[in-house]
Each structure stands twice: as C-alpha cells, then as structure tokens.
Amino acid sequence: MQSTDAPPLRDTTPEPLAHGGHRLAFMQPVPRNLVHRASVAEVLLTDSARLDDTTFIVAAQWPRDHALYHPDAAGRADPLLFAETIRQMFVYLAHTYLAIPLTHHFIGDALDFSLDDTAPLNVGATPLNVVLDARWTWDASRPPRRYGMRLDVVLSVGGRVCGSGMISGIAVDDRMYALLRHRDARGRTEPGGDTVGVPWVPRHVTPAAVGRLRTKDMVLERDPVDLDWLLRVDTNHAIYFDHPSDHVPVMVALEGFRQLGYLVVNEGLWDSPLVLVSSEVRCLAFGELDQPARLVLEEAAEPTGSASLRRLRVSVHQGGRPFAVGTTVWSRPAGAPEQAGSGERTEPVERAEPGERGDARPGGTRPFIPAQRGRR
C-alpha cells in the first residue's frame, strides 16, 4: 500500500543574511537549559551569532498555534511570543556568550516590547521565522557574584522591521539570591485568607472575555467581597510554571496585565477587538506565591482621544505595596471597522456562570541599535 503522507515541501525562502554574511538556521531549538525551560516544546530560539563584544543576531521560530500563545481571530501571532522571545534571549546570550554561570539566578527589573508593524506577523502555512538584532549593555556588574545587564532588541520578519524591545536585570549566585529574597520578604503582611497556587474555577468571566481559549489559562479572579481583580497564580500550569519557581514569574504578571487590559478595552467591541501592540513592565519586588495579589487599574486614557487607541496602566499589589507595574497600549487592527464602543457584549461578563468553559477563539536592512545606558 502506498503512503499518502507526503513529506513537507522544502522551504524555498532563503535563510536571512545579516551583518557580514552570517546565516541563521531554524532547524532545531537551542538547548532548553540555556533559556531556562524544562520543556523542549517551549523553546523558541533556534540559532545565533556574535557580531562583536556587545551585538548579536538571534533566530527564533514562533509556532503557527500554541495552547497559550495562540493567534488572534484575525490570524496574527500572539504579541507575548515577542516578550517570551526577549526573555529567552536574555538568559541564552548570558550563558552562551557572556560567561554567566548556569547556576546563577536571573532577576528581571524591566521588560518592554512594541510592535510598530503587525502585518508581517500574520500566521501562514508554516511557522513564523523571526530574526532579532540585539545589543548587550553591562551595568553595575560585580562578577562573579553579581552581573547587571540590559538587552535591546529589534524584531524583523522576512527582512522587514516590525518591532523593538528591551529587558534588564541582574544575575546573582545562590548566596546573594538568598539575601535578596530574605530582604524583599521583610515587611510584608501575612496572607489574608485567599489561596493561590492551586487549580481554580473562575468567577463571573469567560475565557473569551479576556482573550483566552481555555479556562485554565485565565489568571484573573474576582474578589467575592469587594469585586476587585486578583492575579490568579496556578503553580501547576504547564506553561506559566514550566519549572518550579519560588516567586511569581514576570510573564505571569504580564499575562495578568494583558488579560485585564483586554477585558477593559474591549467592552462592547467583540466584533473587532483592540489588540495589544505595546507593553512596559517594571518589576519592583518579588511576587510571593502564598499571598493574594491584587490588580489595580491606575489609569485608563486614550492618547489620541480615539476609541481606536487605548492606554492602560496596571499594577499588582501584595502586602500593601506593588511588586510590578505595567503600561499597555491597545490598537485597532489595520482595516478593522471603527466602533462606537458603547454596545453590549455578545456574552456579558456578569452573565457567565462559575466554571463555564469557553472554546471560541477571542476575538529592508535591519537597523543598527545605538548604545544605551543600562538601568539599575
């Protein structure tokens, strides 16, 4: 019997050439330990090259679909894939080229990204091959116990620049990490009775209302007393907690900012929801796993006075102080119809039943990166 399972067509798109003829491959992921991932399936980086002491080029492949970072209803790649790629680059370059030990702990203090052109991010018949130009900046390093650094990146798809980003933080040895964790924990209040870190059934909101497909990917929980939003942290989640952590990962806080933002800016816009195009996150302290984390919407402004562009400032608090703050910018996709924004939701948030599951999908040459002064 002849097989009907034909091999995939060879990708005829030439691999990108960058800076002196370096070729980048997309054939397999880099070793998972170099990006601090336990699952090979969650590794996005595929190749890299060092251009000089501080500049690099990195290849990554974004999946056509993903359980958590899935395309939106219009077929655009999830912008948080960009954020996760930046995070993976930070630790990968540190370990691979810059002699930071694999045993060091990375503590981020900032993670930003901005997408200026989302057209190249439309998902097609094959995974999305992306290239990132990167500049590394040392800042207040005291090796070998403490390294301070910043990474600035520019994102290109098919030779077309479409975004930029930045991450900064420190890497420290075990002893210094223990000292920092102990110092940061002092002064926090005791847990107030809410539980975190265990599976949970959401209250009064569907996955589609926060731009997700699956109930278990939701990180918002409504406080039953004052109706504030809490950041729900499930340490059993296979992607948010790909490996054990003693604190709330920055990507979980970012996901909370994204989900609350989606819920707020898309009230009444289900036919053509606004999409996340920019995010800035500042990490001020460690987020503890055994304390409730309250999300506070500090600002909701429209920079242009148009319903097609919204800016939100959100923070997440524990023990009476914020441990992370974020600013997100939301925009209407190109070609999408303008809406008044005053209509009713097709599925109103207040009508959703606890435990209800939703399965509908929610709605040239790369530039040289100028040197910048690092934070910290």
Automatic annotation (TrEMBL):
It comes from the Bacteria. Residues 327-376 are annotated as: Disordered. Residues 344-360 have a biased composition (Basic and acidic residues). Residues 34-167, 209-330 form the A-factor biosynthesis hotdog domain. This is Gamma-butyrolactone biosynthesis protein. It comes from Actinacidiphila acidipaludis. The lineage of its organism: Bacteria, Bacillati, Actinomycetota, Actinomycetes, Kitasatosporales.
